[in-house]
Amino acid sequence: MKSSDSISTCLSPPVHYVICKLGFEKKDTYDINNILSENGEVCWRAVTEHVCYLESDQSVDYIKSIRSLGPVCESVNLHFKSLTKEEFVIQYELWFRWTNYTELFLEVFDVLQYTQTTEVALGLMKLTSCLERALGDVYLLIGKDCPFLLRDLLASEQLAVVFGQAVMNVLRVFIGSPYGLNLRNVLWHGFASPQEIPAKYCAMLLFLTAGLGQLLQTYLLQTKCILVHRPYVIFVSLEELNVFPDLNHETLSIAEELVKLSSFVLKTMSPLWMAALTAFKQSRYADCVILLLPQLEVGLRLLFTATNKCPNRMLTAEPSALYTTFDEMLAKHLDNEVNQLPAVLEEPAMASALKEFLWDFLNHQEGPRIRDRLSHGEINLKAFPREVANQIVAFAITLLCRFSDEDVFAFKEHMVIKPLMNCASSYRSRFHPISRLKKQVLEGMKSIHLWPELPTVPEEHIQTNKKLEGNAEASTLILMISEIISQLQRYMPQNYCSSDDPISSVLTERLLTELCDTRICTLYSPRPVLEILVVLRKISAQCHQVSEQVIASTELRYKQWMNKTLRSRQRHNYLRMLNSIQFLSPVLRLILVLITLELVNIHLVCKKNPFDYQQYIKFLKSVLQYTENLVTYTSPEKNKWDETMELTNKALIKIRKISDRKLTLMQLAT
């Protein structure tokens, strides 16, 4: 692995030239009064005159534009430095309100007064994410479905209608286009070190944001529109994100030492690592994670490029190529060859856990998707939870440890570090569809197991309660369930393989818990697996909904019965419900067990055993149809319990037939 100390920049020569030199080539002194009126308004015409266009197709000539705008940016930076905080607030505070985060832009002004490179980089990252979010809100004044990518948002007709195309072209010189300065991407993906980002570009974006606020006010007055800000994303179920123990001062002090020693850290980037740890200690959790995520990407890119023998990918790609980002580093293949990144992690378990953690926290749709949501301005930075920051910092510490020299072995064995290493190596995905399905079936089974505790009508209140146990329909249902369980038992743990009462002893929460503890590979799931999972999850969700409806209806009807508010027809229907649910319970439990057994075998079959995929999906969809109909029949509005039993009988016949033909995954896997 190439020494991290030997890498002086992650910017390719052309990109380094564009960001660090091009805007300094013109030495002219630009008069701020050319672009700023006496009453403090941005003179946009004077600004847009500095954007140059290609003669061939009239598209933006980014090189000439950056060169021309360089002195303008310097003039704006000097102007801001000449203002006191009070003067800046009086002149500009009003024009930042459209962003819904005025305080952030006032903070960026403070940062520019001292030109601390790490703070400028952080301020620019926060500014661009907030600006993107605000521009998305403006887009929704006219359009629907705001573009996910900043470059598409800035190129949209909707924003051109509000601000003018010339104004949008100015913005694209600084952010959103890979042909321009592209400040947002080079920072958020960790390509630029703090000293490589000129403070004057941060000042210019601050200035332009105020100017956009002025243009927007004019547009809103003319159109009588009201700008509505989308609500922030809120992290729910924070307990699901708890992987590592809470970090204390001692752990953070060791982390600061590891930053100096670890080969995972580029020397040019170490100030950002230290700033991230400082931010955590100061309870600035959003700042901490914003600083740290790009550094994790840099460190992994260093490993990725070394192990895959593609050192050129350590640098920013040109506009015609893709950046080497998290998505590609976590992929199974690289240009039709196997990605060698896991090899450098030595232990397969560690490699798998590393990727599962990153996929969970960054990529999976049902996970927190921390980087996306931070970089696109979807999270309230003022209320960023410590719990999330704790996980990212702890994970980063394990990487610092893993890629440190042998002479820091004592750090790895330290009493506060070793638990972190253990947590990292044993991590299992929590947000992959497989993991979510496990959670679903357990919640569904837990709900169904509440049924025996539901209140029921005392025997003395029932005059004509026809017990189903004695009739032919009930006997047929019980027999079919027992036969299916008998066929399934060979695929279950040994201690569930023999019993006089298979329904009570096999279809249990304990069995599901044991099956769900089976480790299933979640990395690189092929499309057939993902498609099967979608159907299995829908079936599981429907089973849970049926259970919740049964619970609600049973409790309501019991109260009405005891209060004698049920009409004669309702009383008879209530009794049919009580009789029906005692047989519906084992059927729903059977389906959840079947789903879980299929899940346990899902990858094995798709990888090693060719099977009739279409026939299998057809079977699953028929089970899904049954559960969807159950939801309808057992709803408070329908209460069709005779139809429920008839439907259940048909579904069991189909499940038994499929099982007889050995078309389930568990059967194909043996």
UniProtKB/TrEMBL annotation:
Domain DUF4209: 131-211
Taxonomic superkingdom: Eukaryota
Pfam families to which the protein is assigned, alphabetical: DUF4209
The protein's name in its UniProt record: EMARD protein
Gene symbol of the encoding locus: Ermard
